[in-house]
Amino acid sequence: MRETGTLSSPSADQTKNKMANIKLSEEKINVIKDIAKSFGNKPGEVINVLHQVQGKFGYLPAEVQEVVAHELNIPVSRVYGIVSFYSFFTMEPKGKHPIDICLGTACYVRGAEKVLDAFRRALNVEVGKCTADGKFSLNTLRCVGACGLAPVAMIGDKVYGRLTPDKVPGIIAEYND
Ligand code: FES
After folding, report:
1. Whose CB has fewer CB within 10 Å in the chain, the N or C terminal residue?
2. What are the distances in angstroms from CA 127 to CA 46, 101, 102, 134?
3. What is the pLDDT of residues 133-162, one digit of tens each?
4. What's the chain look like in SS3?
5. In the CATH scheme, what is the homologous superfamily, with its name and number, of domain 97-173?
6. Is the CB of residue 47 less than 8 Å from the CB of residue 77?
7. What pLDDT is attached to residue 176?
8. pLDDT at position 21, please?
9. Distance 89 CA to ligand 1 centre (A)
10. pLDDT > 90: percent of the chain
11. Structure pTM?
């Protein structure tokens, strides 16, 4: 197993002490440092930095947010506020097969909530979370541009249209690999 690393910054002793408990591999810390550096470690680039970091890791857990805050010399609370506000940032890991249920207007009026509920029950997972085996994650999104097929869900890049709750078990079974 890889050793965990800590950050050191001679100009930020307080932050360094606070960072001492962060359990993140040296390699991951360096990835974040490199991304922050590529944006000049500028506080105003926080969204771009977070976007790229999420692109690398798939999600933004608390310890990653702390390293970003440290590298951009901004409070962790500001990073957390941004990650919480924008729906394209996530603090939870995605499953091997990410499921996204459209809750846009057309899908909503055609029963998307019942479809969402069927996925939730079939997988025993809450919205925004990943199944215990890491196979599926369940999320919602707004109009994916396939309103004619409402209600719509996506699993990875595959679009499923005209869904009803009774179709859900069969769809999940497609991913029994
Ligand atoms: S509202 Fe769901 S695809 Fe448009």
Report:
1. N
2. 27, 10, 12, 14
3. 999 999 999 898 999 999 999 999 999 999
4. CCCEECCCCCCCHHHHHHHCCCCEEHHHHHHHHHHHHHCCCCHHHHHHHHHHHHHHHCCCCHHHHHHHHHHHCCCHHHHHHHHHHCCCCCCCCCCCEEEEEECCHHHHHCCHHHHHHHHHHHHCCCCCCECCCCCEEEEEECCCCCHHHCCCEEECCEEECCCCHHHHHHHHHCCCC
5. Glutaredoxin (3.40.30.10)
6. no
7. 82
8. 54
9. 21
10. 75
11. 0.69
Which atom in ligand 1 lies closest to the alpha carbon of residue 112?
Answer: 2
155-175 tens-digit pLDDT: 999 999 999 999 999 999 999
Tell whether ligand 1 has an atom less than 6 A from the beta carbon of residue 107: yes
Q: What angle do CA 137, 59, 48 make, to 5 degrees?
A: 135
Domain boundaries, the chain: 4-85, 97-173
Pocket perturbation via mutation, ligand 1, pick of 101, 143, 149 by most ligand atoms within 8 A of CB = 143
Ligand 1 within 6 A of CB of 103: no
Q: What residues are paired with 154 via a beta bridge? A: 100, 159
Which residue type occupies 126? Answer: E
